[in-house]
Write a structure and sequence with these properties.
The chain is an all-alpha fold. About 50% of the residues lie in helices and about 0% in strands.
């Protein structure tokens, strides 16, 4: 997009991204500023290069459309927009060349190493789960009128795995501080990019939380714990890539549990607790998104910086609902 404003990520316009499946709350449930409005709102068309709004919200959302708002002041209109798949499709979209370039860099470095270490199935599970959880959190706490795309939430889940692996094998690493600084640099860069158009830092935070919870479940135990349990060899997913042989639960369930120490059982209770906690969090976030619609006053400080400027300039950062209403 170069008109009516320039996309600093060097990519398509906000409205093209919305039409192609970006996470966009007005396409997913009723919004007070839209369904509760008593004035007709005209929306920008996906291919617009002007500030003129001549399309309906249904045309903007695409994918067969959504129930068009009646603009009668009834915020509880039925049926509601319900393009729930927008929790998933943004994982495979990007706001521009800069965005996809940075994500590819992470994919080809820490992502590649972690996938080789834990296997494609576990990697896929963490990647997709972190991406969806991040989008659910972003839909709850980012601006309702701020579309979001990208695999950054999913990649933050992988960064969480790398961080856990580093902490698990800290004493065995050649330069753990250097590894930690590299991870911190990735996080800082991604957080700064999350303040630009089309990205969402709440998706990053949510993906990281899910990555930590699932990492406790899918990674091997910390080396300090392994030593206390009597394991001779240490383990590091990224550096060694191959875990020491252990009894297989699927092949011999009885042998798998036989002779386990209380500390081993305690660690598995922690793993189960982490999984249960993140599942409860996921359910509560969905409940809040579809029913309660609670948000926070400080959330705006983690969202797009440009959207906090004066409304006439906020096109540079995927217009807030206040600016969208200027199309009426």
């Amino acid at each position: 997009m170069i008109k009516p404003a320039f996309n600093p990520m060097i990519g398509p316009s906000t409205w093209v991204l919305v039409n192609m499946g970006a996470r966009y709350v007005p396409c997913m449930h009723n919004v007070e500023a839209i369904q509760g409005s008593t004035i007709q709102i005209s929306w920008p068309c996906p291919n617009t290069t002007t500030t003129d709004g001549v399309c309906s919200l249904s045309e903007l959302c695409g994918f067969g459309g959504i129930p068009e708002p009646k603009y009668n002041g009834d915020v509880d209109q039925k049926p509601e927009p319900n393009q729930w798949f927008r929790f998933i499709t943004p994982i495979f979209m990007h706001a521009g060349l800069i965005h996809i370039g940075f994500n590819l860099l992470l994919q080809l470095t820490i992502g590649k190493e972690m996938e080789r270490a834990i296997g494609s199935i576990r990697f896929f599970l963490v990647y997709i789960s972190a991406g969806i959880f991040g989008n659910v959190m972003g839909a709850n706490y980012a601006g309702e009128g701020l579309p979001s795309t990208g695999a950054s939430g999913a990649l933050f889940g992988i960064i969480a795995l790398v961080l856990l692996d580093l902490l698990y094998s800290w004493q065995e690493r050649r330069s753990p501080v250097k590894d930690l600084l590299f991870i911190m640099l990735d996080i800082v860069i991604a957080f700064v990019l999350g303040l630009l158009p089309g990205l969402d830092n709440f998706a990053h935070i949510g993906g990281f939380i899910m990555g930590l919870a699932l990492g406790i479940c899918v990674l091997h135990s910390p080396n300090a714990l392994r030593k206390r349990l009597g394991h001779v060899s240490s383990y590091s997913a990224v550096q060694q890539g191959v875990a020491p042989p252990q009894s297989s639960f699927l092949k011999n369930p009885t042998s798998f549990f036989k002779g386990r120490k209380p500390l081993w059982w305690a660690w598995w209770i922690i793993r189960a607790g982490a999984l249960l906690a993140v599942l409860i969090g996921f359910i509560l976030l969905l409940q809040n998104f579809y029913v309660q619609h609670n948000t926070c006053s400080w959330c705006k400080y983690l969202s797009c910086v440009v959207s906090r400027r004066k409304p006439q300039h906020s096109l540079d950062c995927t217009r807030s609902l206040t600016t969208i209403l200027a199309y009426q």
